[in-house]
Amino acid sequence: GDRMWHFAVSVFLVELYGNSLLLTAVYGLVVAGSVLLLGALIGDWVDKNSRLKVAQTSLVVQNVSVILCGVILMVIFLFKTQLLTLYHGWLLTMCYILVITIANIANLASTATAITIQRDWIVVVAGEDRSKLADMNATIRRIDQLTNILAPMAVGQIMTFGSPMIGCGFISCWNLMSMCVEYLLLWKVYQKTPTLALKSSKVEESELKQLNVKKESDVKPAEGVQLVVEKDAGGAEPRRDKEAGCAARIAEPFITFRDGWVAYYNQPVFLAGMGLAFLYMTVLGFDCITTGYAYTQGLSGSVLSLLMGASAVTGIMGTVAFTWLRRRCGLVRTGLVSGAAQFACLILCAISVFMPGSPLDLTVSPFADIGARLFESKPLPTIASPGEKLEMAFATGMPSLLNGSAPGDGDPELSPEPVPLISVSLLFAGVIAARVGLWSFDLTVTQLLQENVMESERGIINGVQNSMNYLLDLLHFIMVILAPNPEAFGLLVLISVSFVAMGHIMYFRFAQKTLGTQLFACCTPDPKAVSDSSPSADTSTV
């Protein structure tokens, strides 16, 4: 249900606003900004409450919000004409605002669910068996990859052969049923795993052996700043409560935000988390940006769907590679191998920028299009064909790219000349092949966070990690907004590859600090490589 909604909400907003991407862009910015600002607070709430309460509350809020959005969207689709005439259209505008607000609440609840289930419950269920934890992580990621394919297909077929209103109703009904099933399953897992009822609120030894075994505050208080959850032991929180002042209560979320980010910085796996976040600063993925660029280079929708399927297959291969590499080389070295594999594949993308068919033109300013829009120095580019290409432009969200490779820009009667496919073929070959290393690396960092962040800090640390991911993702969208013309896409590719390289350099530094001289001893099949190297990790602060 969550994957269906994530796919459908953007389509619904485009349909509502007359095939304009304005509402979709606003929704994207609101979602990214909310997680960026509230990620630490959500994680702190996860830490402060019992596991069952957090899981059930976030599950109910998420699904109820989606159901409400579906109902409101159905009403808008049914009575849009009447709503336009009431109060000069302001009532319809308020409906748009209400939909985006509730959808944002659903996304925040989904973030809380992901943190508590994928970063906390799974660690407790696995116990001290790291191999079991790795297998469970890989299985969850495979399910995620499959739902990313099947959910859009299901909703797309319903909206194609039915209508957007029928699609809203289907998603609302599906979320209602799935909420009941998921609620029951969570209760059963909680009952079968008694240790889930035990949640540490003080600095204690985690369920798994930590990367840094001397992390207790009474032993090495300088190693990191303790979180708000830990302040009960230090006495700071009772003092703040005794103040009972309005100013202190207002300042509480800001203090939590600050302490969460400081604690994230002081984690021994900080560089590994930053390395993962830097991978979000890229246009080398199957989002609307890369899809729109592919259309301008002559790829059809059917070819793109096949490429997306191939990408999902290689992503699943990455989860298989993760479990195999971890058994052979250990967890930390798996990240090194995965990162090297991903970067090697992305070299093809960098080469594609200079191959025949690439629209890269350094004589054209990357900001030419944005300058024309802001200062109206020249008319905006027009769509070459009023038929199929117009629909394509709305679907991809990049109408300004459609004439980018056409030599006859000035004459709308001329159709674009065929573009050589060598460049775009190399680009997508690199993107698809890199998914193996990408998902293996993602699973590596995920397990490092699970194993090496203490139980009482898991929520807030993973909340800040989500905020970092959204921050870099937001920066990549801003980068595209500033340079949207196709001649600049090659530069965006090179920038993306550079950020991926910087991310893996950060991870290499983390691995070097953790394993020391054993960094390249890749033949060691010890699954407890992180713990075995703790003396090296203890001597370094991240």
TrEMBL record:
Entry's transmembrane regions: 20-46, 58-79, 85-109, 269-295, 301-324, 336-355, 419-438, 459-482, 488-508
Signal peptide boundaries: none
Membrane in keyword set: yes
One cellular-component annotation, GO: basolateral plasma membrane
Key word Cytoplasm present: no
Membrane topology qualifier: Multi-pass membrane protein
InterPro entries, alphabetized: Ferroportin-1, MFS_trans_sf
Name of a matching Pfam family: FPN1
Keyword annotations: Cell membrane, Ion transport, Iron, Membrane, Metal-binding, Transmembrane, Transmembrane helix, Transport
GO molecular function: iron ion transmembrane transporter activity; metal ion binding; peptide hormone binding
Main location: membrane
Subcellular location: Basolateral cell membrane; Membrane
Record's function text: May be involved in iron transport and iron homeostasis.
Entry-linked PANTHER family: SOLUTE CARRIER FAMILY 40 MEMBER, SOLUTE CARRIER FAMILY 40 MEMBER 1
Family according to the record: Belongs to the ferroportin (FP) (TC 2.A.100) family. SLC40A subfamily.
Protein name: Solute carrier family 40 member
